[in-house]
């Protein structure tokens, strides 16, 4: 009976996640960290059981990384951060007059990679599990090393690495301020501030005459929507037949490799897999369509693997993905917590068994595929046209801003809002000016919480 209840929760929440974020993926520029993370946090705080929370998140990322290919291929604008590496090849295929082929290859590659990545990530996590205690015991130093590595591998390189120091000190100072003011430290507000940092920075820039010059446009932005073309028989094509044998093989290989690597930037892995396997194709057109499949498949496999491996094996957010969009699965006080001093966790790592991660993860991905794949293949043109004409970006921004305010008020009232605003403004400017992305900043938060006390203890 308990298993039936968990399965029903997982199925129901997977349906919600797939539908909500399948639709949100159609809206260009909807960053995963700023959208999936706050909503997942809200789901946790509402008291949804662990199986439901996990299935919701997995369906959300799988569904969004299917439909984010629609604006990327048909409109020539990235659906979200992870769609940016697909943009160049998508634009070249648009110029060749075959954007529908780019869309079909991209989302079919995503479907194949998502289904492959779940069991592979669980397998790789089980391989690491025997070393979990050793890893947890040196967690403060691992977070410090991981933060430095992720910063150096980001676009910011040395600037992002050096900017970690003032950012960590800012977090330490704000945490001390919050503790002295409210009697306890904050967690959720820091998380929300970092997640929405680019949004907060842009809002501040828009309110400044000098800032408006940086983000303003002289003319209204226009987009050309590609024609609606179908070249298959029947209602829905089979993703295994959309990809030819060679494309299927290399997409599978890229998904396998990226499912085993969980410490590198997902964007970097997407670019790397595209370059590594895309060069295997001699014909230029074949290379472009194949790279679309491989890269979009990698966006799925990296997000899944970088969530599952640290979640199952360690329970600590030791990956850019775990430190970013998936962070609520690890740390969402008071429901899920990480005790820095005791070195213990109380999150999905402790609440679900490995077989549950496998079963509910596959269930969520299959639900996302069943809902999003047919929709993207048959309704992409109509949906893209409706979104560009009817959906207000300002309304979406306002909705997420309101959600952030409500959650901050829930944690510690006005103090929490001020902390989130401060961290978001500084983090957003670091992101915009020095390419210090949110994954680096999340690792900086954990360095402030775990590594700084360990360093101070050594110095003392």
UniProtKB/TrEMBL annotation:
It comes from the Bacteria. InterPro entries: DUF112_TM. The chain crosses the membrane at residues 6-27, 39-62, 107-128, 134-153, 160-178, 184-205, 248-273, 355-376, 397-430, 442-459. Keywords: Membrane, Transmembrane, Transmembrane helix. Residues 11-433 form the DUF112 domain. The keyword NAD does not apply. Pfam families: TctA (PF01970). This is DUF112 domain-containing protein. The lineage of its organism: Bacteria, Bacillati, Actinomycetota, Actinomycetes, Micrococcales.
